[in-house]
Amino acid sequence: MQKKDKQTTGVIGLDAVIDGGYPKGSVVIVTGSPLSGIEHVARQFWRVEVEGGVYLMIDGDVEEEMVDSRNLNPDAFPGYYKGKRIVVDSLSSVILNSGIDDAIQCLLLARKEAFRENSTIMFLLYNNIHKPEDENRIFRIADVVLELKVVTFATEVERQLAVHKLRQGNVPKRLIPFNITDKGIELSTTSRVV
């Protein structure tokens, strides 16, 4: 896949890790705890100034330029998919409010829309609240699956990113450390030595 077929992630260091960015025309799932930084990944992707996009906020504070989606039925989401960078925050809320079957239908509609418009649609999924079989159904539909982890070593907290799935790309064989700064998430270029 050539660089013209990729869309920058907006996260410092992540484009290099996943062969140039997210594939255009794809559905991306970013999973992790609320403290892991998944909202940073979503905002950094959405705020890249190269292409416009939309942020559908279902379960948090609606900021300027976001779409208040708390009362939207998931079937209505495609009507709001404008631009090349779309974020749905969060798929977990869709599952909890409407059920897994509606969430799967939402993903399938998003996949068609992403392919048709050559856009990238990102969904946030909070871990440890859904059935494993439901998560597996979601991950099978996705083109890219990223997981953000928080690991504690004695007195130190380390954040790590795992790439579990990457359509037409090489999945890294290691966890990548990252930091959360005032600018958002930045991948670390050094590895932890024990």
Q: Please count the beta strands (DSSP E, at least 2 residues each).
A: 11
Q: End-to-end distance, in Å? A: 36 Å
Kindly report the name of the CATH homologous superfamily.
P-loop containing nucleotide triphosphate hydrolases
For this structure, the quaternary state is: single chain
Main sheet: strands, sense, barrel: 9 strands, mixed
Proportion of residues in β-strands: 25-35%
Q: Would you give an account of this structure?
A:
The chain has one domain (3-153, 163-187): Rossmann fold (3-Layer(aba) Sandwich), CATH 3.40.50.300. The chain is 25% helix and 31% strand. It contains five helices and eleven strands, in the order βαββαβββααβαββββ. The protein has helices at 14-17, 38-46, 91-98, 100-117, 132-141, and strands spanning 6-7, 22-23, 26-32, 53-57, 67-68, 85-89, 120-126, 144-153, 156-166, 176-181, 184-187.
Briefly characterize the structure:
This protein is α/β, with parallel strands linked by helices and 194 residues long.
List the helices and strands and how they pair.
Layout: E1 6-7, H1 14-17, E2 22-23, E3 26-32, H2 38-46, E4 53-57, E5 67-68, E6 85-89, H3 91-98, H4 100-117, E7 120-126, H5 132-141, E8 144-153, E9 156-166, E10 176-181, E11 184-187
Parallel strand pairs: 3-7, 3-8, 4-5, 4-6, 6-7
Antiparallel strand pairs: 1-2, 8-9, 9-10, 10-11
